[in-house]
From TrEMBL:
<keyword id="KW-0456">Lyase</keyword>
<dbReference type="GO" id="GO:0008696">
    <property type="term" value="F:4-amino-4-deoxychorismate lyase activity"/>
</dbReference>
<dbReference type="GO" id="GO:0046394">
    <property type="term" value="P:carboxylic acid biosynthetic process"/>
</dbReference>
<dbReference type="InterPro" id="IPR036038">
    <property type="entry name" value="Aminotransferase-like"/>
</dbReference>
<dbReference type="InterPro" id="IPR043131">
    <property type="entry name" value="BCAT-like_N"/>
</dbReference>
<dbReference type="GO" id="GO:0005829">
    <property type="term" value="C:cytosol"/>
</dbReference>
<dbReference type="InterPro" id="IPR001544">
    <property type="entry name" value="Aminotrans_IV"/>
</dbReference>
<dbReference type="InterPro" id="IPR043132">
    <property type="entry name" value="BCAT-like_C"/>
</dbReference>
<dbReference type="Pfam" id="PF01063">
    <property type="entry name" value="Aminotran_4"/>
</dbReference>
<protein>
    <submittedName>
        <fullName>Aminodeoxychorismate lyase</fullName>
        <ecNumber>4.1.3.38</ecNumber>
    </submittedName>
</protein>
<dbReference type="InterPro" id="IPR050571">
    <property type="entry name" value="Class-IV_PLP-Dep_Aminotrnsfr"/>
</dbReference>
<comment type="similarity">
    <text>Belongs to the class-IV pyridoxal-phosphate-dependent aminotransferase family.</text>
</comment>
């Protein structure tokens, strides 16, 4: 079941289209160059979660791409239309994936193409939360300071050019793993292809939650940010890298976190078993549940 709603100045609440029919021009620069941006967010009981954070990251990606996209109000209305349509068609599903997409538009037209797509949460995604992840380190090939030196690489923007990220996940699957953590050429831990890295220590009751530093050219995770805010209120100490692979091997637990899969424990790294903690996972999952 896919619901599609195009953002269209002639339709205030968005224009619902038939997802089984072609809707995009073959000359759209999103299709021909991967030139555009997206967001993926979770909706529960018909309401989008962390919407402000996703809309503000979408605006930051648009600024990095120098792309003019519809305003937040138009996105909100199209999301409401999409979720209403989805709930009417799938009343028994409590959650949905909402994707916001914008491209540079049809060649020569100088107007973004923008739409909202709503789908069920894939069963495989839900299963990974429970089963945990076998992860491989893969090098990304850039050093951890490249984002500041080379803004044209669009590091930290959520662009449509995710072919490399998807290739990394296929590499993991072909080598008996589930997912990947990228490392920089100077040996720093970066992020997953679709997730943020978290690790925790519990030293005599003082719990610390850490994530790689944002300046290393990674995407600012909305889930990591919301979890850090909730953990801080509960007395956790917070840390922002730099992290190296040995820090993950030494941690009391490691997770990948993102908006749809949420918090998934990493159970092995490069085939080596990691420490996991059912207690810490339960405690953090409870904090995640508060913002989903
Ligand atoms: C590269 C990358 N890093 C991190 C994340 C996690 O971000 P969020 O928690 O906002 O979903 C994503 C999400 O898809 C991602 O694509």
């Amino acid at each position: 079941m896919t619901v599609l709603v195009f953002l269209d100045p002639a339709h205030d609440d968005g224009r619902i289209v038939d997802a089984s029919q072609p809707q995009l021009m073959a000359t759209d620069l999103g299709a021909t160059r991967g030139d555009g941006l997206f967001e993926s967010l979770l909706a529960v009981d018909g309401a989008p979660r962390k919407l402000e954070a996703h809309l503000s990251r979408l605006a930051a990606s648009a600024a990095a791409l120098e792309l003019t996209v519809p305003d937040a109000g138009a996105w909100r209305r199209a999301i409401s239309t999409g979720l209403r349509e989805f709930t009417a068609a799938e009343p028994d599903r409590s959650s949905a994936v909402v994707k916001l997409l914008a491209t540079r538009g049809v060649e020569g037209a100088d107007q973004a193409t923008a739409w909202v797509q709503v789908n069920p949460v894939p069963a495989a995604t839900l299963a990974q939360r429970e089963a945990g992840l076998r992860v491989l380190f893969l090098e990304r090939g850039y050093d951890s300071t490249v984002a500041q030196r080379a803004p044209w690489l669009l590091m930290g923007a959520k662009t449509l050019s995710y072919a490399v990220n998807m290739a990394a996940v296929r590499h993991a699957k072909a080598h008996g793993a589930d997912d990947v953590i990228f490392t920089s050429s100077d040996g720093k831990v970066l992020e997953g292809p679709t997730s943020t890295v978290l690790l925790a220590h519990d030293r005599d009751g003082q719990k610390t939650l850490m994530t790689p530093q944002l300046e290393s050219g990674i995407l600012a995770g909305t889930s990591q940010s919301a979890l850090f805010a909730a953990a801080k209120e509960q007395g956790w100490e917070l840390g922002y890298g730099p992290l190296e692979p040995h820090h993950l091997h030494e941690a009391d637990a490691v997770w990948l976190i993102s908006s749809i899969r949420l918090l998934a424990p990493v159970i092995s790294l490069d085939g080596q078993e990691l420490r996991t903690s059912a207690t810490l996972t339960a405690e953090l999952t409870e904090l995640v549940d508060r913002f989903v």
